[in-house]
Amino acid sequence: MKVNGIHYRPVWQAADGSAVEIIDQTKLPHEFVVARLTSMADAAHAIRAMLVRGAPLIGATAAWGLWLAMREDASDAGLTSAYEALMQTRPTAVNLRWALDAGRAKLAPLPAGERVEAAAAFARHVCDEDAELNHSIGRHGLEIIRAIAAKKPGQTVNVLTHCNAGWLATVDWGTATSPIYQAHDAGIPIHVWVDETRPRNQGAFLTAWELGNHGVDHTVIVDNAGGHLMQHGQVDLCITGTDRTSANGDVANKIGTYLKALAAHDNGVPFYVALPSPTIDWTLADGFAIPIEERSADEVTRIPGRLDDGSIGAVTITPEGSKAANPAFDVTPARLVTGLITERGTAPATPEGLLGLFPERRAAGED
Ligand SMILES: CSC[C@@H](O)[C@@H](O)C(=O)COP(=O)(O)O
């Protein structure tokens, strides 16, 4: 998507082929900074420290991390240690495992001398494919928004989203935002309630920045406001992303998603989850086994932002000595999910619903 008229992806190979470049998302929305990754350790750090984040982008950056690793050591031992180091960066988004498994399967049979070029080709493919999948998700999600718009002619469709499942979290388009961008581009009047998404504020920092860049009308709200807005008929539908969806349609996503789904259910508001197929974990029968990342207490006790003097800083908001817990994701049970919007269409959040869209998984017996 575009930033000041220039098309960007959040990760790409540097024009001279010497490095990987990323948009450093820890600096947004106050500064637009491009960071260079020149080693596998740089890529691992970028994922762990959330310079890049969001399930599909974590997978795409890991794929580029394999390329950086092969430049350093293309031996079997080098491949194994890069695979293991990158796998340990963040636990919840299954796209990481998907990309590393697929990358290792491509590279392992090759002679070491061919691995660098093959790793670059693989990373380019992962990125291009993610952009295409998300564009398709948008086409299917657009039909849902169009149907809601048809029931309220001339009025604005109000969507609530949580965290950032936008183009910054993917390679392009975003998952939850792809239907929103496509509806906006199709001329459907649309407005987005953006959950700030404490503790890291991906909604306030990133989703609001993205939507603003694309000219989509939006309002940032505190995480606790969604239920109230739903009770008062101000939300037509919710769309979120997911870091991992189990084979029965349970959805792991940013902490707080579950509470939005409960409020939506109580108020009869449709609650959709948008996801590309690499986010489905076919090995898990339900969501309870999804590993939930526990992050630093500092993310809860301190908030970064632009200070009144214009500088960028952080403030402490809790009393000295108070403990803070920081589970970064939660699992929304499938029964609260109206539908899963995938690149192949929208499925009910059930095992049969998912297998109906991905019948090859039935035959595969799942791996
Ligand atoms: C298309 S991104 C879907 C999810 O990855 C997104 O909603 C989310 O929870 C991101 O969490 P983050 O901790 O910022 O990586």
Automatic annotation (TrEMBL):
Write out the entry's keywords from A to Z. Amino-acid biosynthesis, Isomerase, Methionine biosynthesis
Which reactions does this protein catalyse?
Answer: 5-(methylsulfanyl)-alpha-D-ribose 1-phosphate = 5-(methylsulfanyl)-D-ribulose 1-phosphate; 5-deoxy-alpha-D-ribose 1-phosphate = 5-deoxy-D-ribulose 1-phosphate
**Site keyed Transition state stabilizer: positions:** C163
Question: Which Gene Ontology molecular function entries are recorded, alphabetically?
Answer: S-methyl-5-thioribose-1-phosphate isomerase activity
Catalytic residues at D243 (proton donor)
Annotated EC: 5.3.1.23
- Output the Pfam families linked to this UniProt entry: IF-2B
Entry's Gene3D superfamilies? translation initiation factor eif-2b, domain 1 (1.20.120.420), Translation initiation factor eif-2b, domain 2 (3.40.50.10470)
Q: Which residues bind substrate?
A: R53, G54, A55, R90, Q202, N253, K254
Note the superkingdom of the native organism. Bacteria
This protein's pathway: Amino-acid biosynthesis; L-methionine biosynthesis via salvage pathway; L-methionine from S-methyl-5-thio-alpha-D-ribose 1-phosphate: step 1/6
Q: Name one GO biological process term.
A: L-methionine salvage from methylthioadenosine
> Would the keyword Cell cycle be found if you checked this record's keyword annotation?
no
PANTHER family (alphabetical): METHYLTHIORIBOSE-1-PHOSPHATE ISOMERASE
Family indicated by similarity = Belongs to the EIF-2B alpha/beta/delta subunits family. MtnA subfamily.
The record's function comment reads: Catalyzes the interconversion of methylthioribose-1-phosphate (MTR-1-P) into methylthioribulose-1-phosphate (MTRu-1-P). Also catalyzes the interconversion of 5-deoxyribose 1-phosphate and 5-deoxyribulose 1-phosphate. Part of a bifunctional DHAP-shunt salvage pathway for SAM by-products.
Q: What is this protein called?
A: Methylthioribose-1-phosphate isomerase
Q: What is the lineage of its organism?
A: Bacteria, Pseudomonadati, Pseudomonadota, Alphaproteobacteria, Rhodospirillales
Q: What gene name does this entry carry? A: mtnA
